[in-house]
Automatic annotation (TrEMBL):
Its main location: membrane. This is Acyl-coenzyme A thioesterase THEM4. PANTHER family: ACYL-COENZYME A THIOESTERASE THEM4 (PTHR12418:SF19). One of its GO terms (cellular component) is cytoplasm.
Length: 219
């Protein structure tokens, strides 16, 4: 099996797929701050033991805020465009649930390119809980899927996940530093084979492999 990678600068332009594109410098700092605060709000709501009158006040305030923000909504599928250090262009789904910069539900997972793939350090708060004190297995799969897809994209091969296999080797703790790594291991025709791991204190807690099928731009 050989890796047939293209330069990253040849990533498909989302406009060719009919997707709206937002330049990174057009994204207001105020939106980033709002996203971070709502991210913290979700954790606060999940864990609050405030009294009923406080809960009622908070509920009314959040309802009012939701109505205000819904007055002007972005299209589903909007992509964020950012320049790369090497002169190319990077794209990311703005509201991606794992890593989207405008999604308060996102981790957010900020993946950096390494010599052989992508890597990130991150911590998951109680919002991502499955078993008591541990990260939900579905979110572990989502994190791996995102890293595996990003490793494929970083190698110039953007695709959709056709198959994802996850092995849970050890419990993944909440509120503790975690590391995720992923890389391309091979490619044939439109199939890209990728593998990755999540580690805590250097020990693998979960590992995954996937087949990404490369996107073909509409002609
Ligand atoms: C717009 C761009 C801007 C840039 C943007 C940058 C963003 C950069 C970061 C991205 C990071 C995202 C990370 C999250 C990634 C997801 O979450 S993707 C969402 C979940 N996945 C899906 O929704 C996919 C749903 N499935 C499908 O749409 C279609 O089945 C697929 C996967 C596109 C394949 O369909 P197809 O195009 O018709 O391909 P097909 O000809 O059937 O198969 C092609 C090859 O793949 C193989 N194959 C197909 N399915 C399978 C399978 N399940 N198992 C094994 N092999 C399979 C076939 O056997 C065939 O192999 P060969 O014959 O070449 O040996």
């Amino acid at each position: 099996m050989s890796v047939d990678a293209q330069p990253v600068s040849e990533l498909p332009d989302p406009r060719n797929f009919g997707l709206p594109v937002v330049a990174e410098d057009e994204l207001p700092e105020e939106l980033r701050t709002l996203v971070a605060r709502v991210h913290d709000l979700v954790d606060a709501v999940a864990h609050t033991e405030a009294d009923t009158s406080e809960l009622a006040r908070a509920s009314a305030a959040v309802h009012e805020l939701t109505e205000r923000l819904n007055v002007k909504r972005r299209d589903v599928g909007a992509m964020l465009e950012r320049p790369r250090a090497d002169g190319g262009t990077d794209y990311q789904t703005l509201t991606n649930v794992v890593s989207g910069v405008s999604n308060p539900a996102a981790v957010p997972l900020v993946l950096e390119e390494t010599e052989d793939g992508v890597r990130s350090e991150f911590t998951l708060n109680g919002t991502y809980q499955g078993p008591p004190g541990l990260v939900h297995g579905g979110w572990i799969a989502a994190l791996l899927d995102q890293a595996l897809g990003s490793a494929s994209a970083a190698a110039g091969m953007v695709g959709l996940t056709a198959n994802l296999d996850v092995n849970y080797r050890n419990p993944t703790p909440l509120n503790a530093p975690l590391e995720i790594t992923a890389r391309v291991t091979g490619a044939e025709r439109r199939k890209v084979h990728v593998s990755g791991e999540i580690r805590h204190n250097g020990e693998v807690t979960a590992e995954g492999t996937a087949i990404m099928v490369r996107l073909v731009a509409p002609s």
